[in-house]
Amino acid sequence: MAKQQPLVLLVDDEPDLCMLMQMTLSRMGIKTHMAHHLKQAQHFLGEYHYDACITDFNLPDGNGLELVKYVTQHYPKTPIAVLTAYANMEIAIAALKAGAFDFVSKPINQQHLHQLLQKALHVPVVDESENQLALDERLLIGQSEAICKLRASIRKIARSQAPVFITGESGTGKDVVANLIHQLSNRQEGPFIAINCGAISEELMERELFGHVKGCFPSADEDKLGLIQAADGGSLFLDEISELSMPMQAKLLRAVQEKKIRPLGSDKEIEVDFRIISASHQNIELLVQQGKFRQDLFFRIHVMDLLIAPLRERQQDILILAEHFIEKVCAEWRIEPKQLSTHAQKFLLSQYYAGNVRELRNMIERAITLSDEQSIEIEHLQSHTAQQNIEFNLSSVPTQTPQALAATDAVSLSTSPTAPLSNAKLPEEGLEQYLEKVEKEVLINALNQTHWNRTLAAKKLGMSFRSLRYRLKKFGLDTEDEA
């Protein structure tokens, strides 16, 4: 059976422009209807089923934003794009915020129109139950109100081409959410390119983003494809975008706004089709007010926004996530599944989780490594240093079921009289990094004392050889297997 020809509604009061678009779409195998004012477009939408709609912003009896809101409300599965005057980004952003799938600038660029329609006609239709399962399988796990709202927002945002800005503390999973938006969008067949803007020096950032041509600087012995161009047809995720310098922000703005880049040393511009998803743990609006982040770039990337709640505000999800990590890690390591004791569950619910989900995962991996039995206890969850400084008061919490634990208040922690926390100097780098630094120093000291005999080092440290191997691998200290 032949595939039905797509039908698109064109809304513009300029007959010549409508005819031009109609001829362009006809060559793409797309049938079109033309409407020249708002009321006529609304009538056609009620009479026919359209696969997509393209509307001009200025109409004789209204504007394109009104039609966007009308279509979004009454025909939410019909993608609608807006025609805007060249470089009028305020209208384009307003249209995207109102629910438009995308926009295309006048004068009409046939390549851009072709790309827009290709994506509009291939919006993935996913069953809600399958969509929910896909989200869960990608680690958006939990039953809290915050995580349920996040799932709903991702499903809605994934359907459009609008830039997305993700806010959340370190370790909340901003990269996971960005990847989910890509995987559930019509760009899922394209690449997902992620870059941490805070992990690359300023002098290298331009080369990484825009690429370069051979010979443009002494060590450039071949052409290099930039990450923006590598994201062509897909999504570009810029984590910690607030770390970009002001000059780089200006160059990025132009690339995002015009969808064109110029590699270092090249005299040619390259058109690139990508969706930008960005994230930061910092307050970008405050940085804009302080003059540390460009306001025009902020408005361009901050069209659709998502806030990921910290784990301490999702206490209902802590044990669910912990059980998931236990199952996953044990499966990856091919060992028998372990279980959290009741006291261990209470301990997990009492933590602050400055490192959020990432910190919880690290705690679970460490506990599985240290536990030689099937049960995970408190001492397996605490680091050696933490056990010396913090005494967990079990007697203050009555025994409850795991389900009831999620609703209890945080368990009280009492400080040891030999090391009062109120007077202790807090590590500037944060607790997790400080503890890892201490742990690494202890490991190296034990290895040096045993001339790097790992079996003897494990005995000196009072741990299993497997536990030592895990820690050495964690810190990049693992060497060849001993004979």
| Average of the residue pLDDT scores | 83
Helix content: 40-55%
Which class best fits the helix and strand makeup?
alpha/beta
Might you state the CATH topology name of the largest domain?
Rossmann fold
Distance, first to last CA:
66 Å
The proportion of residues in beta strands is 5-15%
Q: How many whole angstroms does the radius of gyration measure?
A: 27 Å
Low-confidence stretches: 388-422
Number of strands: 20
Q: What is the general shape?
A: elongated
Largest sheet geometry: 5 strands, parallel
CATH homologous superfamily designation of the largest domain? P-loop containing nucleotide triphosphate hydrolases
The top-level CATH class of the largest domain is: Alpha Beta
How does CATH name the architecture of the largest domain?
3-Layer(aba) Sandwich
Provide the number of structural domains.
4
Biggest β-sheet: strands ordered side by side in the sheet: 2-1-3-6-7
* Helical segment count: 22
Structure description:
With 483 residues, the chain is an alpha/beta fold. It folds into four domains: 7-120, Response regulator (Rossmann fold), CATH 3.40.50; 145-307, Rossmann fold; 311-421, Helicase, Ruva Protein, domain 3 (Orthogonal Bundle), CATH 1.10.8; 430-483, Homeodomain-like (Arc Repressor Mutant, subunit A, Orthogonal Bundle), CATH 1.10.10.60. Helices cover 46% and strands 15% of the residues. The protein has 22 helices and 20 strands. The strands form seven sheets. Strands 2-1-3-6-7 form a five-stranded parallel beta sheet, with helices on both faces. The longest helix is centred in the C-terminal third of the chain and has 19 residues, at 315-333. The radius of gyration is 27 Å and the shape is elongated. The termini are far apart. The relative contact order is 0.07. The model is unreliable at 388-422 (pLDDT under 50). Residues 7-121 form the Response regulatory domain. Pfam families: AAA_lid_14, HTH_8, Response_reg, Sigma54_activat.
